[in-house]
Amino acid sequence: MKPTSAFIDTPAPRTDRRERILDAAETCFVRNGFHRTTMLALAKAASMSAGNFYHYFSSKEAIVLGIIERDRNRNAELWEELVKSGDQTEVYIDMVASYFTAMTRDAAILQVEIWAEATRNPAIADIVASADAKGRAWFLDTLTASAGLPERDCGDLYWAMTAMLRGMIVDRATIAEYDPKPALSRFVDMMRAGFAKGGPAD
């Protein structure tokens, strides 16, 4: 972190400063929680003046939206690259398994913190609900045709998958020595069976 005297710093591209803010926000939300993190603390963590900071984000809710959108955009870019090399359903299973294998405890804590705040903050609840709806729509639009499944069966598979993955995130956040491998193995089996049979495995 830069010293206080460097808050008015050398010019940087807008995207670089936006990334800096999002990185700082993730760290602060994990360490202090969303509710106890102030906009001033976020500006300080990003080594920016408060006035400059507000040019990029007007509220903590806007920052959460930025974090979610950044994660979604990164996954979309990865998907576009990986799907060139194989079957969409297998690429999806491998991508999700790799993502959760690499997930750090801090990343899981951040996700749980956002979910917790969504139970208290209607603005965050709307952001989370919108992100979930977009994720479900993408899953149905992209993988229903690829797997040759009826939309209802693919929808059932989506909800079974979501329940399992959210449980893994909570475990990763709350159990210091959590090993995702057994759950991921079950996830892979469930998804392959679901895509093959038109629903989640028994």
TrEMBL record:
Pfam families linked to this entry: TetR_C_31 (PF17940), TetR_N (PF00440)
Segments crossing the lipid bilayer: none
Protein name stated in the entry: AcrR family transcriptional regulator
GO molecular function, a single term: DNA binding
The keyword Transmembrane is annotated on this UniProt entry: no
Keywords noted in UniProt: DNA-binding, Transcription, Transcription regulation
Taxonomic superkingdom: Bacteria
Portion annotated as DNA-binding: 38-57
Lineage of source species: Bacteria, Pseudomonadati, Pseudomonadota, Alphaproteobacteria, Hyphomicrobiales
SUPFAM superfamilies attached to this UniProt entry: Homeodomain-like (SSF46689)
InterPro entries tied to this protein: Homeodomain-like_sf, HTH_TetR, TetR_C_31
Domain HTH tetR-type: start-end pairs: 15-75
Keyword presence, DNA-binding: yes
